[in-house]
Amino acid sequence: MKFSRILFAALGLTAFLAWADGLPDLGDASETLLSPRQERRLGDEIMASIRIDRDYLDDPEITDYLNDLGYRLASHSPAVRQEFQFFLVRDATLNAFALPGGYIGVHTGLIVAAQNESELAGVLSHEIAHVTQKHLARMLEGQKQSQLTSIAALAVAILASRSNSQVSQAAIATAQASSIQSQLNFTREHEREADRVGFQILDQAGFDVRGMGSFFERLQRSTRLYEGNAPSYLRTHPLTYERIADVQNRIQSRPYKQVADSAEFQLARAKLKAAQDTPRDAVNFFEEALKRRNFGTEASARYGLATALLRDNNAARAQKEMGVLRRLLPAHPMVASLDCRVESAQSPAKGLDCYRAALKRYSGYRGLIHDAAEALLRQRQADEALQLLAAQIQLYPSDAELRFLEAKAYAAQGKILLQRRSQAEGYALLGRLQSAIEQLQLGVKAGDGDFFQLSGAEARLRELRLQEQEARRK
Predict the structure, then answer these.
(1) When comparing pLDDT for 151 and 26, which is higher?
(2) Cα–Cα distance between 86 and 99 in angstroms, integer?
(3) Which has the closest alpha carbon to 66: 80, 38, 43, 86?
(4) What is the DSSP string of 80-105?
(5) Which value, to the nearest 10 degrees, does the dihedral of the CA atoms of residues 409, 350, 400, 275 take?
(6) How many other C-beta atoms lie within 10 A of the C-beta of residue 406?
(7) For 370-411, how does the pLDDT look when each residue is reduced to its tens digit (9 = 90+)?
(8) Residue 104: CB partners within 8 Å, gap ≥ 6?
(9) In this structure, what DSSP letter does residue 314 have?
(10) For residue 333, what are the contacts with CB-CB under 8 A and spacing of at least 6?
(11) Mean pLDDT estimate for the chain
């Protein structure tokens, strides 16, 4: 089963709306027993499981673009202080969803299918509105702490059993996800409110509000293709003609606005499309798109073709495409990053030179940083890799992948304690405290660190054990 069949069909209903017991709105959401801290903790617990799922996509380039777009929209929302984190799910279906604590997941298929950036922004605005309007808190209002834990356990169980519907049914029964059908009236109200607030966010952020209406219609057509295969108790509410009509009525009151897509949107869309199909099919798709001029801009189509050719082990032809692409987009970090990947496939030594030059121009670009560190490690340049990573960890302290790359570099140097310490920090950032503790325990036992390194590892181990104990009590 895919995320879309388990979590949400249609326009990304909030995850827990389909799982929590249906409760009436008993008052102002600000008075709910579910505090922002509790909500964030629930989100953290679910994200810890999502991040180890095979369909979680940790692409720094597209994730950073998604978060930039999301925060541009969120800055025009009713709750500008709300923290958000947008992430990718590798799934070809059209879907997005909100989780507790401001986590918002986006299917790769949704980005690929968006005909313009305003359509994608319309979906994100809708999900942001679910969060800012406290729909999760309203549905969970009055729940006891033990029940909230059961809900979190249910989310984990569903994610873990996506490939087996019978296991999924058993998991849901165990987690006591009852009375799902009774929630329909409440969630319809939430959807209408998210449409209204999301429309306002989209408009105030400077996007074309027609993007929300056109994507609604496309989602409705898509829903008919796969919703019938989902278990009835997990189906979320399909888009209704009433909701589409409401949005269309609002659109009529707004003047026509033509909004150009950002280069980041076009390139991110092309990158995902190039990865979605088989390498040969992806090459054929972009070749045809260039002939017919029917996929975004020429630059994005060239970018997609070069990416697909690289996947198809045709680096020589990809390099020719890069020559055209560099003329079309001479100063863009995503183009520079792809250029270095192509160079590395042709000549690892030239690839390193490419990364060094690109990092001077785009020193804080995470896509380049990750790729450059990997390239350095492949060429056994662990010392240089560590220098690069040390600077970037200061800049991006919450980037777990930088810690794991650091661990690889220390492993290449044979420094086991430091390797385990870096792995532990990476796991801690992902919320996997037990794994972090295990890594530190192994590091302390390795016996290859100096006094200060060993003392620091032991102190960090005590901190993590206390954190784990506190988490168990909550």
Answers:
(1) 151
(2) 10
(3) 86
(4) TT---EEEEE--SS--EEE-GGGEEE
(5) -130
(6) 25
(7) 999 999 999 999 999 999 999 999 999 999 999 999 999 999
(8) 70, 84, 85, 86, 87, 96, 97, 98, 124, 127, 128, 131
(9) -
(10) 358, 361, 362, 365, 367, 368
(11) 82
Residue 281 located in a structural domain? no
Structure tokens at 209: 């509000």
Among 2-11, 280-289, 444-453, the least confident range: 2-11
Angle of helix 210-226 relative to helix 117-132, nearest 10 degrees, comes to 80
Structural tokens at position 220 = 């409705």
Domain hosting 245: range is 3-252
Which amino acid is it at 425? E
Structure tokens at 236: 């979320």
CA distance 470 to 102: 23
φ, ψ of residue 58 in degrees (nearest 5)? -100, 75
* Cα 280 to Cα 399: distance, rounded to the nearest angstrom: 33
Cα gap 184→458, rounded to integer Å:
52
Residue 258 burial (10 A CB sphere; 0-12, 13-18, 19+): exposed
Q: Grade residue 16 by pLDDT with cuts at 50, 70 and 90.
A: very low
Residues sharing a CB contact under 8 Å with residue 131, sequence separation 6 or more, in sequence order = 14, 79, 82, 84, 98, 102, 104
- Does the residue 347 lie in any domain? no
CA-closest candidate to residue 177, choices 18, 61, 311: 18
The total of other beta-carbon atoms located within 10 Å of residue 228's CB is 10
What are the phi and psi torsion angles at 296 (to 5°)?
Answer: 60, -130
Residue labelled with tokens 């056109």: 214
Q: In whole angstroms, what is the distance from residue 220 CA to residue 211 CA?
A: 14
The letter for the amino acid at 438 is E
Among 418, 379, 413, 374, CA closest to 392: 374
Lowest mean pLDDT among 226-230, 304-308, 330-334: 226-230
Domain count for the chain, please give it: 1
Q: Domain for residue 442, yes or no?
A: no
- Residue 286 C-alpha from the chain's centroid: 25
Tokens of 57: 């996509």
Q: Is residue 454 part of a domain?
A: no
Residue of 239, 178, 182 lying closest to 212 (CA atoms):
239
CA 156, chain centre distance (Å): 17
Helix (H, G, I), strand (E, B) or coil at 205: coil
Q: What is the sign, positive or negative, of the torsion defined by CA atoms of 325, 331, 335, 340?
A: positive
Residue 370 in tokens: 């990750």
Question: Which sign, positive or negative, has the C-alpha torsion 276, 281, 287, 292?
Answer: negative
- Residue 454 sits at φ, ψ, to 5 deg, of -65, -40
**Terminal CA-CA length for the chain:** 31
3-state secondary structure of 222: helix
Q: Is the pLDDT of residue 3 over 50?
A: no
Angle (CA) 209-210-214 rounded to 5° is: 130
